[in-house]
Amino acid sequence: MSVLPDIDNREANRVGMMKLTSQKRRRKKWNSEALAGYLFLTPNIIGFLSFTAVPVLVSLILSFYDWEMLIPPIFVGLENFKNLFLNDPLFYQVIKNTLYYVGVYVPFNIVAAMILALWLCSITKGVAIYRTLFFLPVLAPTVAAAFIWKYMFEPNIGFVNTFLGWFGIAGPNWLGDTKYAMLAIIIMSVWKMVGYNMVIFIAGIHSIPASLYEAAKIDGANSWNRFVYITLPMLSPALFFAVVMTIITSFQVFDQAYIMTAGGPANATNTIVMYIYESGFQFFKMGYASSIAWVLFGVIFTVTMIQMKVQKKWVNYD
Amino acid sequence: MKKLWKKVSAVSLAVSLSILTACGGGGSTPSNTSGGTTEQAQEKKAEQVQLRWMMWTGSDEEKKVWETLAAKVTEKYPEITVKFETDSFPNYWDKLQTQVASGSAPDIISMQSLRMPTFATRGALEPLNPFIEKSPEFKIENFDGSILEALSWDGKVMAIPYDLGPYILYYNKDLFDKYGVPYPDENMDWAGFLEKAKATTQDGNYGFVMRNVIDQVVPWIWANGGNYMNEEKTKSMIHEKEAAEAIQFLSDLMHKHKVTMPITDPGNDTFYREQFYAGKVAMYLDGPWNFGNVRAKANFKWDIATIPQGKGEINSWVAGSGFGINPKSKHKEEAWKAISVMMGEEGFEYLATTGRAFPARSTAIETFKKADERPANMEDVSKAALKAKPFAVTTNWQETQLMINRELDKVWFNNAPVQEVLDNIQKQMDPLLDKHQKTLSSSK
Amino acid sequence: MRPKSTKKRIIQVISYTGLSFLAFLMVVPFIVMITTALKPENELFSHAGSWMGTYLAWENFTYAWNYIPFGKFFINSIFVSLSVTFLEVLTSSLAAYAFARLRFPGRDLLFYLYLGTLMIPAQVTIVPQFILMNQFGWVDSYQALILPAAFTAFGTFLLRQFFLTVPFELEESARIDGCSRFGTYFRIMLPLSKPALATLGVFAFVTQWNAFFWPLVITNTEDMKVLSVGLKMFQGIYGTEWHLMMAASAIVIIPSMIVFGFLQRYLVEGIQLTGMGGR
């Protein structure tokens, strides 16, 4: 356990309570609490272990095999990983592309979602309508959304270049240009998913007890101070969740790239998961695909662990 | 509690290992949908048998055509019913692969010639020769030899073809008429092609459209006397002079003469077709398998011609699709019966009347020609076939072709120097061909 | 009700104008979707610059509806999505309560395990998952569509984060009043977390409604297929039926909108319970 950071610092919140209980009572409480904990977990964990954990474990095992799917797997040890790092230039290209996507998309999405959430919480009339409009893209099936955007990115007749034309900008051949294709996918992704985090933030903001704001008003705090000293700290668990999840999912970007550009042109939008899909489902190299997936896991896990460590400095559970 | 946790992980490990051996062991551990011995199958003969047949479709009409064909099996053999399952073309392959890997593939497998070696070398298709020999009434000699060859592996027929096609040139007659340009014919060379493409590139229309894939490039390479790999499939030839010239010519069409429509939707496998249907393009390359769709969608007069000729002898490739049998099926005999009905003379007559696919069985060609309400120049299909050969592929062709496509993208999208790109392709292609050779020798 | 100052009024006007502009940009793709769905087929690319075709091709909706067995797919999608949503909200909230409020050995390790599985892309787990389903004999069944999707780590993580923000004191006082652990979870935690539960409900429904790859692989017959898979059928081998796909998309989006509209009311209710915040 020592390698993993403490999940959060909420144990400290309970210290006061703990002090009151005697050593003996505490031990008894522990047992009944632990039992309750396992009971609460049971319904979820049974399904989780059988349908999620086992396949994940199998993919880990497969990463040490050469498995062409149609013939029995052959154990190859670390061969897949060796090839990946030493003999596969495409692997580095897809990592670079994915990092570009994550690096632009995540901050863009989080900041935009936060602004929209705060904005929507500051108005009184028509909140439900605006919230629905901003959430609408999340409701659209990715297949549909990708096709709509392909139509909009068409350089001569699509809406995007028509829109840019209003401001006197000549738009590029978005999807057919190695410089712009990934940007086009990022734009589409932000449109598609900004409502998601927005709703999380709105739910978070609404969970903040009104009494805190009233107290602050009495103390004469202005709206900026209220945001910095009340909203942000109280929202930090939701914000933390949104950041962690957005990073985890955006490292696995696939659907948009798959439908909009199929990884092209010239690998410009080929991402890690796209490459995993191709290796496994088109090249019949499931073992190799699994090894890429576990390298990706390593990357995401490291990033998440860093966030877990850093969160103690800014996430406030109380 | 730590012990419990250890137990849980041990159990899941055991389960996963059993899965690993189960799927790895292939036929040795029969699952619910496959397995069973031939003896059992013999006994069951009189019983009702339901066969699963999976096939890709692109439209509801196509689906109805195949379902009608499946119903013909029950007409002839009341004890056999064929359950038709379908999905779109790209989805079909994802599903087939998953099912083959888990031993639950359908009894009748639909197979495309370009992908056949991948499946055949890995034992996912039953050689059909024993069945064919037992059924002289099936008249295999009526099938087109080139497509039968393209669906054979190691001298054995792996699937019975339902269609075939040499790659041909489709053209929009209305656009040629509008600009007073003579139609393409079999004598058109590359200079003539360029001239016509230039003359039809007007008013936002383009003379030519292509898809950024190697299939579209190969006819030009062959027409110029080159090849993408040698006959033995051991060395790349795409970087050599003839191939490079052909690709340079295509690059010039796009970047220098600007008669090829820029590709604006690289993720769309059918971009070039959609642009032709929309009437915005004068010429494009496709197979006769697309007659039905062009007829349904094109709002203009159109026809076909052979592909522009260079100094080479061959200028077109042949590909097609057919139906094979899952080696793990417990109803192989019935599956063959079903195929022999669907791909029999009557089955083909019916297929031909729908006019959807150029028939692989010669007896049905006349019916097919009549089915065409807006007749295209069918003679050109036969002419094209004379100068065509099967599209040669390897056991890892999917990977090889995607690598080539992505590299060639640099030519189409970035106007990169052709020779540089081709040298780069050669560097990656040779190891892939080595791997192919290794797969071959290990499968024997 | 004192009259608002001019400054406040101006801020309000700017605020609404800005929001409306952003909302317009968000909605444009849907307008494109509807107008494309109403274009005659042969004008898709030639007149795409203009919003409308030469006439409104309402028949596209009829074609789209008949192109695939819409009704059947619809019922399957609704049934599967609702089942997944119900199971996910129920089991995740229980698990999340354990992770957020109770202390037991192995808790943190388990939590990391949960979180870790989110980091493995489905593309490599789909085949083992399929093999598992095949061993159970569940290929092409509702179980196979519902169960693997219902126990994700996502819901547990989401609710845990929200449960952590609920003040301890409320539960402590309930515990002192003799409420059982399940009682505190059911009577205190759940009602206080309505916004979060509604959020998860919407997410679970929408994710399942739009899920594509797993339903594609695990179903074979039309009796089991769902809408998202049906939508892809409009992308044929020989050409995409753009107009029909847009029409079908429009039809597919409507149920999600209804579910969202319905659950919005609960979001609002949650606000009233916990008191209005956010200012």
Mean pLDDT of chain C: 84
**Largest β sheet strand count, sense and barrel closure of chain C:** none
Evaluate the radius of gyration of chain C: 24 Å
User: What is the number of E strands of chain A?
Assistant: 2
How many individual helices of chain C? 13
Oligomeric form = heterotrimer
List the uncertain runs of chain A: 1-26
Strand content of chain A: under 5%
Secondary-structure class of chain C = mainly alpha
Please provide the ordered H/E string of secondary-structure elements of chain A.
HHEEHHHHHHHHHHH
Query: Biggest sheet of chain A, strands in spatial order?
Result: 1-2
SSE pattern of chain C, N- to C-terminal: HHHHHHHHHHHHH
Given as residue ranges, the uncertain stretches of chain C (5+ residues, pLDDT < 50) are: 270-279
Continuous helix count of chain A: 13
Name the beta content range of chain C: under 5%
Shape designation of chain C: flat
Q: Could you give the count of β-strands of chain C?
A: 0
Q: What structural class is derived from the secondary structure elements of chain A? A: mainly alpha
Helix content of chain A: over 70%
Distance N to C terminus of chain C: 19 Å
Describe the structure.
Chain A has about 325 residues and is an all-alpha fold. Chain A has 13 helices and two strands. Chain A has helices spanning about 15-20, 25-60, 80-85, 90-120, 125-140, 140-155, 160-165, 180-205, 210-220, 225-250, 255-260, 270-280, 285-315; strands at about 65, 75. Chain A is globular, with a radius of gyration of 24 Å. Mean pLDDT of chain A is about 85; it is low at about 1-25. In chain B, strands 1, 2, 3, 6, 11 and 12 form a six-stranded mixed sheet that branches. In chain B, strands 8-9-7-10 form a four-stranded mixed sheet. In chain B, strands 4-5 form a two-stranded antiparallel ribbon. The longest helix of chain B has 26 residues, at about 420-444. The termini of chain B are far apart. Helices cover about 75% and strands about 0% of the residues of chain C. The longest helix of chain C has about 35 residues, at about 240-275. The radius of gyration of chain C is 24 Å and the shape is flat. The chains are: A mainly alpha (about 325), B alpha/beta (about 450), C mainly alpha (about 280). The interface of A and B includes residues 53, 54, 174 and 278 of A.
